[in-house]
Amino acid sequence: MAKVKHKKKKGEKGNDLLENPDVLAEKLSRSEEFLEKNRVIVISVIGGLAVIVSAIFLFRYYVSNQNNQAQVDMFQAVYYFESDSIQKALHGDGNNYGFLEIIDNYGITKTANLANFYAGASYLKLGEFQNAIDYLSEFSSNDLVVKARALALMGDAQMELGEYREAAESYEKAASQNPNQYLSPLYLTKAALAYEKLMDYEAAAASYAIIVEKYPESGEYNNARKHKARLEELASN
């Protein structure tokens, strides 16, 4: 009785490698031949990868150590800031670093990033509003509450400089970072005041409207209702 030959399906071609030892031997022989001919290249690639991995590990280790040291060095500056010794907080006292030195000496660390926040807040207290904006702009945070605070401080500096449109945008961003009935209404009220300075009564009323609609339990609710009605009347004239 004649044997029936079964045609292999397309997906079964790879089975030859497992079923036929000669095919496997041939494949291995070709791989060895390739490695032999390209030994220098293969060794270089492997060595390069090892160098990259080692460099990444060492960099992370270095940054971690730098950040730890920066935290120690910034302790006194934070104390001066909280004590309203703003010049010492910024520039140090001759023995301890101020925020500006932390930024210069530990620029790649999280602590230096936080120093940007403190430096911006310090310049705001000193009335140096453009410096405040510059440093606050360099600050970034995954903590939405702190990020909102930085944006609000930037808005305060912009208001002082008469940059009312920019201030309103900063306040609105602050209000949206971590919406809550405690801080968002305050930031929205500041945005409304900035818009009113621009005589953009419609936008100012819209800011108060958000407080009325979303934050009825907030301390700003009653004033928001009153000013919303006033500004809507002004906008309609």
Give a verbal description of the structure.
By secondary structure, this protein is mainly α. The protein has a domain at 143-237: Tetratricopeptide repeat domain (Serine Threonine Protein Phosphatase 5, Tetratricopeptide repeat, Alpha Horseshoe). Helices cover 76% and strands 0% of the residues. It has 12 helices and no strands. It has helices at 15-19, 21-37, 39-82, 86-91, 99-105, 110-126, 129-138, 144-160, 164-177, 184-197, 201-214, 221-236. Helix 11 (201-214) packs antiparallel against helix 12. The longest helix is centred in the first third of the chain and has 44 residues, at 39-82. The protein is flat, with a radius of gyration of 32 Å. Mean pLDDT is 86; it is low at 1-6.
